[in-house]
């Protein structure tokens, strides 16, 4: 950066490369984006919330509250279920000097502009057809997001049950109270995400225990 602080780091680990964008701070700089040559990349809002999350099968764009604005799949990805969703070009500014442009799986560019000079980094990747059988499970959400969703559904179910108990004070009626359809649907979606997401077995069990408690 013009301040002299490190803006972009490219790290090589064996045959893989990782591009990291940092905020403009002299120390304890937060990471604003990570792009890996294996196709997994994440961009963050200034408050630390996930902005864009991508895998070798597709990606999603979130708002600062964590709600999904849009998602897409890459043309050459093999989805286990669901329709193919094409990508609409994405342009975001991580800060006043660094921007990200996403036009395709192999057309992802990090642009750095300062003091009249510009540098561009191509951080896209391309999955070969021969690699399709080795694709990892589809990951739309990270571990923290899955836990937050699970706790959110659990709290909503507890609130709904409390409301039902207030309306039906008799103990005999409590076991007959069922959660509303939208909570059942959200629970099923989270359980499905646990099956398709690339997370540890321990976390998968924890999420299931939370929503099923």
UniProtKB/TrEMBL annotation:
Would you tell me the protein name for this molecule?
ERIP6 protein
Which PANTHER family does its entry note?
GLUTAMATE RICH 6 (PTHR23093:SF18), SIMILAR TO CHROMOSOME 3 OPEN READING FRAME 20 (PTHR23093)
Return the InterPro entries for the record.
FAM194_C
Q: What positions does the domain FAM194 C-terminal occupy?
A: 1-177
């Amino acid at each position: 950066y013009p301040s002299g602080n490190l803006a972009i780091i490219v790290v090589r680990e064996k045959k893989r490369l990782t591009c990291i964008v940092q905020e403009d701070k002299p120390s304890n700089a937060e990471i604003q984006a990570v792009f890996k040559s294996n196709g997994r990349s994440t961009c963050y809002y200034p408050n630390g919330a996930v902005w864009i999350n991508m895998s070798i099968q597709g990606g999603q764009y979130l708002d600062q509250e964590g709600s999904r604005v849009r998602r897409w799949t890459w043309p050459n990805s093999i989805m286990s279920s669901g329709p193919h969703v094409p990508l609409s070009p994405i342009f975001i500014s991580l800060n006043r000097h660094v921007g990200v442009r996403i036009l395709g799986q192999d057309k992802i560019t990090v642009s750095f502009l300062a003091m009249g000079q510009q540098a561009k980094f191509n951080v896209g990747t391309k999955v070969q057809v021969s690699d399709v059988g080795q694709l990892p499970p589809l990951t739309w959400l990270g571990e923290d997001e899955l836990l937050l969703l699970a706790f959110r559904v659990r709290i909503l179910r507890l609130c709904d049950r409390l409301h039902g108990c207030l309306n039906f004070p008799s103990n005999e009626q409590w076991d007959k109270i069922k959660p509303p359809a939208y909570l059942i649907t959200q629970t099923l979606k989270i359980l499905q995400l646990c099956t398709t997401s690339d997370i540890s077995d321990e976390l998968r069990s924890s999420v299931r225990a939370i929503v099923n408690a």
